[in-house]
Design goal:
338 residues, nine-stranded mixed beta sheet, 37% helix, alpha/beta, TIM Barrel
Length: 338
Amino acid sequence: MDHDKIRNFVKNYVSNRLRFTEFAITNSCIAKCTFCDIWKQTPKVMVNKEKAIKAIDKLSSFGVSHLTLTGGEPLLHPNVIEFVERATRNKMHNAVLDAAPQLLLRNDMVKRLEQAGNDMISISFDSGDPETMEASRQIPNIMQDMTKAVEQIRKTKIASMASILIWNDNYDKLEVTFQRAVDMGFDVISLNYPTFSKSQVYPLGGEGISLSKDKVIHGLKESIRIKKTKKFPLINSTYSMQNIIRFLQDPLTVKSLCRGGNRTLFLDWFLDIHPCMQLPKVLGNMLEMELSDLHTETCNDCNMSWYRDFSSCFGLGGIPILLDSIGNIQPIFSRTNQ
């Protein structure tokens, strides 16, 4: 992460304005995942380029210091590079999610993302077994393409992240999955917690994640144990994973509630702001909203990882929790700042 982005992050944190946003720029997707129905949505929508750029500018004025471009499949949007450039111009640390690594191998995509100032490419990684990955995502040769894509990323300043969902295939063998990701060359690993959503914007569910709470807790406890060994660069904080375990066992015992709609935001392809991708509630249109329109209440309705993990960085003990994650990505700074 370049120094301007670090300074902007620190400035917004100190001034109590720090926010994080997921921006879904399209609902089009190549993958046909067993735990997500977004690929079934019609009509297919691509966010308007000019309006999206204005929305990124406004998010910056709200204190958003990290922007994740998601979808659907964000690499299908013809203006994804311009969106990364705009985030960089606003000194936002930015990540691009990817479920179809074949797209990273086309049209010099990785190099163009680097030139635009992209900080991280997060690739969905469900299993180290090629056949399982192909069945999970319904994408032929996905592991071969992923291996080539990670090799390309490692030649740039961009960090690569294996985004691993806890699901029926891996909850009891996460260390093997982590090892496979590291062997492939991924810089860092993030863990996603399975959740169901009937949201019309972002429906989630399916047989793949229909596992019991005990099995999810098993996976989380195993990940905490693995994290303590410092063998793998897992960015989820121990505190946040323990908080999710409490939520699954008894929601009333959690120590940190979700700050979705205030500190963490979901912006959809219609430029509507939601507290998170799971909740249908619309806070307003980004181009018309003011900072005072953001949600002020906390939430404890689900275990959506991106929102719960970032939310845990606010309030008492926020700095140590943030450092717990940053400490695991520190080793890649020497490469990304070359």
